[in-house]
Amino acid sequence: MNRYAVIGAGPSGLAAARALHTRGITVDGYEASHGVGGLWDITNPRSTMYESAHLISSRTTTEFAEFPMRSRVDYPGHRVLKEYFDDYAEHFGLVELFRFDTRVTRLEPRDGGWDLTSAGPTGNETRWYAGVVLANGTLAEPNVPTFAGEFSGELLHTSAYKSPEQLKDKRVLLIGAGNSGCDIAVDAVHHASSIDMSVRRGYYFVPRYLFGRPSDTLNQGRPLPARIKQAVDSRVLRAFTGDPVRFGFPRPDYRIYESHPIVNTLILNHLGQGDLRIRPDIARFEGTTVHFRDGSADDYDLVLLATGYTLDYPFVDREHLHWRGASPRLFLNVFPASFNGLYVMGMIEASGIGWQGRYEQAELLAAYLSAVEEDPARAARFRERVTGAPWPDVTGGYRYLGLDRMAYYVNKDAYRGAVRREKSALEVSA
Ligand SMILES: Cc1cc2nc3c(=O)[nH]c(=O)nc-3n(C[C@H](O)[C@H](O)[C@H](O)COP(=O)(O)OP(=O)(O)OC[C@H]3O[C@@H](n4cnc5c(N)ncnc54)[C@H](O)[C@@H]3O)c2cc1C
C-alpha cells in the first residue's frame, strides 16, 4: 500500500485526509501550525482571519454534508468555525494523522514519488511518498501592488489586520473592496477617526438575507442558465440594495457573478449615513498624502491594502504544477496532466462552493488513488481521459474577469457537477 502526504490541516487538508482515510489509503499529514482549522484558527501564525470575521456563505451551504455544525446560526464567527474543525477532526480520527508544528519546506521528485522535507519540533526530516496532496491554502500570501511614490505613514496588508484596535483613532484609507476589505471598513467606521475606501471598479453587493432567508440558500435547485440568473439576480439586487453608484462606487464594467460578489450591505448603510467615503484609484503617495486619480488628495495615518492574495506553493518548483499565468493549470483544479504524483486541494474560488465542494474534490482524488491501488487499469483510463479529451467547462457560462485573482475561479454548480461526473466515470468498473 502506497503512503501519501497531505500538506495543511485547514478545511481542504482535513477533507483530503478524511476522504483518503475513508478509502483505507495511508496518510501522513503535515501542518505548520499547532492545530487544525487552517485560516479559521486566528492563532495560526499564517491565518488571515480577523476578530470580526464571520462566514460569508451561510452555514448550511458551507458545512461538510456528513458533519452538520452544532451551531444553528446562519453566519457563525471564526471561533465557532475553529471549534467545528476541531470537532470534525476529532470525530473522524484525523488529528492523529497529522504532525503539527511541522512545516513542509521542500518537495523533490524521486523514483516516481516525492521526497518531502519538513521542519518540525525534532528538526528536519525527509521522507518519501508515492504522492503528495497540497492543501496549504490560497489566501495566505499577500498580493501587494506597487504604487508610485512612498507612503510615510503606516502601510499594512489586510493579512496583518487582526483587531479594530489597530484602527483606533486613525485616519484610514482602505485600498480595494473585497469581502475582507468591506468587513474591515465596517470595523473602521466604529473605531477609526475617519475611513475612506479607494476602488478601481464597481461591485455587486448581495445582502446576507433575502426574503428572510440567507441569500445563498435561495435558488438551490436546478441552476438557472447564466444569462437568466444574471438578469433575475440583478433585478432582485436593484430592488433590495439599490444602485451602489448612488453611494459613490463606479458602475461595474462587468455583469453580476463575472467577479466575486460582496456579501455585505452594511457598507452601503454606512455610506448612506456618511460614515465613510469612496475615493477613486490611487495616483501616487507623497509622505502621508495620498493623491487620487481624479486630482483630489488627502492625508492618512494608515493605508490598508485589501488587495487580495496570490497563489503560492513555495516548496515545489513551478514546472511540476504546470503554472500558466497566475495559477497552476490542473484538471478540475486538482490533477496535473502529467500525473506526477502531486495533487492540489482547495485551489478553487467560487461563490458558494463551501467546504462540501472541497470535500467532493477530495472524494474524486480518493477514488483515483484507490483505483491506483486496486485497479490500475481503471486508474489508467482516468489518466487517458484527462490527457486525451477536452476538459470540462467549469465556468457555468459566466465570462469571468481576466484578473489574476480569477485565474482559478469556477462556477460552483458546473464545477461540482463535473467533479461528480468524473468520479462516477472513474468508478464504473471494467
Ligand atoms: C475572512 C475570510 C472569510 C471567509 N469566508 C468564507 C466563507 O464564508 N465560505 C467559504 O467557503 N470560504 C470562506 N473563506 C475562504 C477560506 O479560504 C476557506 O473557507 C478555507 O479556509 C480554505 O481552506 P484550505 O484548507 O484550503 O486553506 P487554509 O484554511 O488556508 O489552510 C491551509 C493550512 O495549510 C497550512 N500550511 C501552509 N503551508 C504549509 C506548509 N508548508 N507546511 C505545512 N502546513 C502548511 C496552514 O498553516 C493552514 O493551516 C474565507 C476566508 C477568509 C480569509
TrEMBL record:
Gene Ontology MF terms in the entry: flavin adenine dinucleotide binding; N,N-dimethylaniline monooxygenase activity; NADP binding
Domain of life where this protein originates: Bacteria
One Pfam short name: FMO-like
The keyword rRNA-binding is annotated on this UniProt entry: no
The entry's keywords: FAD, Flavoprotein, NADP, Oxidoreductase
Family, similarity comment: Belongs to the FMO family. Belongs to the FAD-binding monooxygenase family.
PANTHER family membership: DIMETHYLANILINE MONOOXYGENASE (PTHR23023)
The protein's name in its UniProt record: NAD(P)/FAD-dependent oxidoreductase
Species the sequence originates in: Microbacterium maritypicum (Microbacterium liquefaciens)
Lineage of origin: Bacteria, Bacillati, Actinomycetota, Actinomycetes, Micrococcales
